[in-house]
Design brief:
The chain is α/β, with parallel strands linked by helices and about 400 residues long. The chain has 15 helices and seven strands. It has a seven-stranded mixed sheet, with helices on both faces.
Length: about 400
């Protein structure tokens, strides 16, 4: 990459959001200051100590929220401050000591003359004391990012990131807590930005020494709501506003002349156990709905928009073919409307009263579809995991 002679580390600001991390924040901040001139701490309503007093007499800038507003809002507060002072890049790092300031040296060369990328520090999960919840959360977050954007990275939960500030300010973010970090990557990709990763070290203390501001119930609820919002937006056919020029991938129509190659490509698409499971669940869900003569079209559209495995999604729908699943839905819907089961099934009660049966099919499917989708997804996930283990064992021999 051609280097810009006007580029220097003065264009890079390091941001450390902090909320009740008095034992670690000072070492993190001073460590970052040894690599970058511009370091900003955002005190997000800390009650355990006076953050400003920790850095009195230094050139560390401290911005303060009077009350806790969330990590996302702390980052946005710093972002507005950086833009007002002419900064070009912002690197965020957590205040809990999990990340090593020395890894800033890995980010700085990648920022040179590149304001089209978000760079994520991919944590090496090969050390001690790494919680199983962190491993699972990382895989789940990576999966949802792929569904929402089609982009795969190894660690989209990492808080050690570098952003181009001029684009970040235009992303119209809605999240204000930990959901911000899930939202910002999806919206960045939609806006035409690239996601790059750099490998970083990570430290986790012993479980009894661990201090986390993550509230499992409320923060997971926020993140789940955010992914629901992002998936919903992804399903809409309207284009996203691009902030940078995007080189569109050329569709390889030559595959149409080679059905076997096309099939192999489709089979490999999002073919992880989780990817296959969600593909099966989506196909089952829509197959159970009364989308007469439209099931295949709707499932193909949703699978394409969400980057799912189309072969799985389209073929699993055959499990819901008439008459079994529609009959269950109609019976359930009839019971919901009348308090009793439909026992007189004949041409007149089915076709002569078709509008009523369609309403009952819809009502029943609202219960049957999610249950069937969940069960199908679980079965497919288990089968895929078992198959993957057998392949791994066979290859290991």
């Amino acid at each position: 990459m051609k280097q810009n002679s006007s580029f220097s580390t003065e264009h890079i600001w390091c941001v450390i959001p902090v909320f009740n991390n008095k034992n670690t924040v000072k070492d993190v901040v001073l460590g970052c200051r040894s690599y970058l001139q511009k370091v900003v701490v955002v005190d997000d309503g800390s009650a355990d100590t006076n953050i400003s007093a920790l850095f009195s007499g230094s050139d560390i800038e401290v911005l303060k929220h009077k009350k806790n507003r969330g990590k996302g809002q702390a980052i946005l507060t710093a972002l507005r401050h950086i833009v007002a002072n002419g900064g070009r890049f912002m690197i965020t790092i957590d205040a809990d000591g999990q990340h090593y300031p020395r890894d800033l040296e890995k980010f700085i060369p990648l920022l040179q003359d590149d304001e089209t990328s978000v760079i994520i520090g991919c944590r090496k999960f090969n050390g001690k004391n790494i919680p199983n919840s962190s491993r699972f959360g990382r895989k789940l977050a990576n999966f949802w990012l792929r569904v929402e954007t089609g982009v795969s990275i190894d660690d989209c939960q990492s808080g050690f990131r570098a952003y181009p500030v001029k684009h970040l300010l235009q992303l119209n973010m809605k999240g204000s807590h930990y959901d911000f970090e899930a939202e910002v990557l999806a919206r960045a990709v939609w806006a035409g930005l690239y996601l790059k990763t750099v490998e970083i070290d990570v430290w986790y203390p012993e479980p009894h020494m661990r201090i986390s501001n993550f509230k499992p119930f409320i923060d997971n609820s926020r993140i789940s709501c955010m992914h629901t919002r992002l998936v919903g937006r992804r399903l809409l056919p309207f284009p996203h506003r691009k902030l940078v020029a995007v080189h569109k991938k050329q569709v390889d129509f030559s595959l149409m002349r080679h059905p076997v190659k096309l099939l192999k490509k489709l089979l490999k698409e999002n073919a992880s156990p989780g990817g296959l499971a969600i593909s099966a669940a989506v196909g089952t869900f829509f197959a159970a709905l009364p989308l007469i003569s439209m099931h295949t079209l709707v499932i193909a559209y949703v699978a394409t928009r969400l980057h799912l495995n189309k072969i799985m999604a389209l073929n699993i729908q055959h499990l819901c073919m008439p008459p079994f699943v529609p009959l269950i839905c109609i019976e359930l819907g009839y019971y919901m409307r009348n308090g009793q089961w439909l026992t007189d099934i004949n041409l007149n009660t089915v076709f002569g009263q078709l509008p009523a049966r369609l309403i009952e099919w819809l009502l029943g499917s609202l219960i049957v579809a999610p249950i069937a989708a969940l069960l199908t997804g679980m079965i497919v996930f288990g089968a895929a995991q078992m198959f993957r283990k057998r392949i791994s064992n066979y290859e290991a021999k």
